Automatic annotation (TrEMBL):
The keyword Transmembrane applies. It comes from the Eukaryota. It comes from Neoarthrinium moseri. Keywords: Membrane, Transmembrane, Transmembrane helix. The chain crosses the membrane at residues 13-34, 55-75, 95-117. This is Uncharacterized protein. The keyword Transmembrane helix applies. The lineage of its organism: Eukaryota, Fungi, Dikarya, Ascomycota, Pezizomycotina.
Length: 128
């Protein structure tokens, strides 16, 4: 499906390695956050509060998108004989486009939250 819209392009080795290392670093952040959830004096940055929940969820979606970006080629190769060709491509493309769309929506939501919070702060300062 994407091959008909975009020219077929595989990631170069350097691009794939960059994605893999960013995914590993992101996974380490998530691992530390989860491991600290049972600590008695829990570090403040690991707590998911209503204020920072959109940021953490956006980060988790980014990690899932990075995984899908890295695993797209190997998954397509692995599913080669399991599903009919058109179905395997459509399933993987739908997952990729869905995660990309979700990440874009979440980034727009977080950006809107930040702008609205900044505007509210400016209004409070003007009222004083």
């Amino acid at each position: 499906m994407l091959d008909s819209v975009f020219p077929p392009q595989d990631l170069s080795l350097l691009q794939r390695m960059i994605f893999i290392w960013v995914f590993i670093a992101s996974g380490l952040v998530v691992t530390v956050q989860v491991s600290q959830s049972w600590a008695d004096p829990r570090p403040r940055w690991t707590v998911v509060t209503p204020e920072n929940k959109p940021y953490w969820y956006t980060y988790y979606t980014l990690v899932a998108f990075l995984f899908m970006q890295i695993a797209y080629g190997p998954l397509r190769w692995h599913l080669e004989g399991v599903l009919p060709w058109s179905l395997e491509v459509h399933v993987l493309d739908a997952l990729w486009i869905g995660l990309l769309s979700l990440e874009a929506c979440m980034l727009a939501y977080v950006f809107t939250l930040r702008i609205s919070a900044a505007l509210r702060r400016q209004e409070k300062v003007k009222e004083l």
